[in-house]
Amino acid sequence: MANELAALSNELAAAVEQAGRTVVAVHARPRFSSSGVFWRPGVIVTAEHTVRREEEITVTLPDGKNAPATLAGADAGTDITVLKADWAGPMNARSSGDPVAGNLALCIGRSEDSGVNATMGIVSAVSGAWRTWRGGRLDHYIRLDLTLYPGSSGGAVINTGGEIIGIATSALSRIAGVAIPAATIDRVVDEILARGHVTRGYLGVGLQPVELPDHQKGLIVLSLEPEGPSAKAGVLIGDILVRLGGTAVSETEEIQLVMEGHAVGQAVEAEVLRGGVSRKIAITVGERPRRD
Amino acid sequence: MRGFGEIAERLRRSTVQVFPHGRGKGGGSGVVWSSDGLIVTNAHVARSGEAEVELWDGRRFPSRVAARDPRRDLATLRLVGPTGGVTGLEIATPGDSDGLRPGELVIAIGNPLGFAGALSTGVIHSIGKLPGMGSQRWIRAAVQLAPGNSGGPLANAHGQVVGINTAIVNGLGVAVPGNAAMDFLRRGPRPSLGVVLRPVSQGLLLLEVEPTGAAAAASLRAGDVLLGSFDDLNDALDSGREVLRLQFVREWPAGGRARVREVAVRLDARAEAA
Predict the structure, then answer these.
(1) Could you give the number of structural domains in chain B?
(2) Which residues of A touch B158 (CB under 8 A)?
């Protein structure tokens, strides 16, 4: 009946109102502002691709006032930028469970002119850890079937209860909007607040998949970063990497996944074939040089 | 969801197709507002003085434009039946657009690209000003619209009309708030200069001046540049003053300083609330 529809409509509007209390507009690029979410008191997260300058960033707070914000750090791989701004408002609850495909989802943004804005759709797919084309790792891949308008990126993705699932970005997939999951944001925010950036493990090798005579696969070392972690550990060009950290590797993506589990400075055991003989080499994980 | 179908059916009966005379196929939509044949639509749909209107049941009537407010993009059409009046109209229920909240469910009915009575659903995206469109408020709705939806109803979950679909901006439906439409019906069009203008770096360039408008009566001409911003002009027009003093420049001498002239524009008085 129409009453049920009106009840649902009220529920959605209430969820938007509640979530909107932590959503800001972020003015850090020409023309369109983007959105951001107070993730912790004084800490805003937004989509990295919408932040085009490092200074003179301002935000429109949930009360409609504009305030300056400072850049705490960014991680292009996961498309997360962390900003700091003064705000004493309440924080919003996170969704306790993971969303499933088919759940209703709303994306809540803010603009200076018209305040809170909302779009609605469904979660169209959820899967496990996902490596973005930008090189970062999301704890879940959460694909959204909802329209992200200019300015929506960085907005809060919520369920119908008003609980936060993550933040929206249009830059991680060509075919759909993606929610950067709350767990990923927590991890990246911790690291950025502690270090100013997200460190990525680095071996300093160029690898190419090869098939071995026994139909196994491995990765042949084609290049070595001089004085890089692998070179220092004694890896030679022509070695064939077959296992890393106890995991069989045959694709370069698998290296990235293993590296996620090894912090910079930690040793990782590599098993290589050299002249047909297997040998184990301990490589101390280095930090990937950052491009400025 | 059963609710949408029911509401849509009721709303569809209050939605009409508008075919302006003197133009090709390009038509729009409209909302039946009163049982004696008053239709609300967009000013840009009712551009000529007359239009043909097709009801949901297929009946077609001629109509004439009763009032137009190009600044709010609203117009009313009066249906003309064979014997004067038109019977059997299903009128729309107006809702209070001031109470709308982002996230509320909305449905839009119209005739996008010529499909009569097409329904689209979505949520209220935001309510507020549009950049460069003055201080008036607009509803933005995350609903799929297309040309031909213009002038049609945007309704809430109760089926009450809360907006008149007007434009598509960045993929979002933009609607005139229902309360602005009510104000227009009660008090008539807001004062206007009767010009088509375009913002330029120096001010507002007059592209066209309607021969019967207030600007023409004050001897303003196409090519004149009004000083000030679009928002300033809108605020002045809405200030309730009967006579506006506007500064403008007619000629820009090469290298020299332009002479700023002033003109007094007498606006048509607006009807007071009945």
Answers:
(1) 3
(2) 2, 6
On whether the CB atoms of residues A178 and A144 are closer than 8 A, the answer is yes
| Residue of chain A whose Cα is closest to the Cα of B101 | A13
ipTM, interface predicted TM-score of the complex? 0.80
A191 and A215 in a single domain? The answer is: no
Same domain, A100 and A206: no
Closest CA to A233 of A272, A288, A290: A272
- Residue B273: the pLDDT is 38
Round to whole Å and give the CA distance between A58 and A56: 6
User: What CATH code is carried by the domain that includes residue A16?
Assistant: 2.40.10.120
* Cβ atoms of B175 and A20 closer than 8 Å: no
Active-site pick, B14, B73, B97, B120: B73
Work out the mean pLDDT of chain B and round it to a whole number.
Answer: 88
Tell me the residue range of the domain where A189 lies: 2-195
pLDDT, block means (10 residues), chain A with 292 residues: 83 95 96 94 96 94 95 94 92 87 96 93 94 88 94 95 95 94 95 87 92 89 93 94 92 83 86 92 87 56
Helix (H, G, I), strand (E, B) or coil at B189: coil
Shared domain check, B213 and B254: yes
In a domain, A292, yes or no: no
Q: How many domains does chain A have?
A: 2
* CB proximity list for A185: less than 8 A, separation 6 or greater: A39, A45, A80, A166, A167
> How far does B93 lie from chain A, in Å, by closest CA?
14
pLDDT at residue B133 is higher than 80: no
Residue ranges making up the domain that contains B20: 13-79
For the four alpha carbons of B127, B130, B135 and B137, in that order, the dihedral sign comes to negative
Strands B260-266 and A286-287: unpaired
State the DSSP code for A90.
P
pTM > 0.90: yes or no = no
